[in-house]
Amino acid sequence: MNLKYQLIGSFFNQRxxxxxxxxxxxxxxxxxxxSEVNKKTxxxxxxxxxWTTNFSSERxxxxxxxxxxxxSSAFVQITFGLKMNTLxxxxxxxxxxxxxxxxxxxxxxxxxxxLYTKKVNLSWPAVAHGFEVSDDAMNLxxxxxxHCLIFENASNTYFSKVFEDKEFENWKKQAAIKFQKIKLKxxxxxxxxxxxxxxxxxxxxxxxFFEQPDFFEQHEPALYNSMTxxxxxxxxxxxxxxEK
Length: 244
Prior knowledge:
Layout: H1 3-9, H2 14-27, H3 29-32, H4 36-51, E1 54-57, H5 65-79, E2 92-96, E3 111-114, E4 119-123, H6 124-132, H7 140-155, H8 165-183, H9 198-211, H10 213-219, H11 221-231
Parallel strand pairs: 1-2, 2-4
Antiparallel strand pairs: 3-4
Helix pairs in contact: 1-4, 2-4, 2-5, 4-5, 5-7, 7-9, 8-11, 9-10, 10-11
């Protein structure tokens, strides 16, 4: 663990770190497979995200620290290779006890990123299922945080971009090719929802990138490689996905 996270880690007591580890080892497969050194860094980054994010829920629903740790871990998983520990614009997360709807809209949602309220909304049953089944390329929390990264990258200044411009342009080039394959029904990897637009394609690709990396790389090597460069990690290398 580098000096930065050693220093940050000193602000959290051992009991807090132990609780975080216990939740992560039981619920996050990515974390479970990391080396011991990477586990310690992941713990600290999870706690930083948790304590800098405004979590809330509806009255009568018990929002536990375990839930917050699990949700936070998805963000850390995505950004483990990036120099990004928190969300600046979307740092409010609402956890609903069930699927929800908006006024004047009968559609039920399990998750969304609200651009007006700057809030990430998640249905807890869908969040839990995403971590209970870790190899089906469907993880709601990873999906919605993927949207957050795209939106924050678009609104940040050059010096605070989430992604390097060169790597993001390369990803968009490969994503556009994949988008056309989906439209032509020549798709073997990403589920069809990725054909909605490039924003959805990114989030669906993230889910597959982390939950079915070998299958993804085998069938779409160019797109997969563009994501390893964009995110500065390769989840096929389970012990150390950010190894240079």
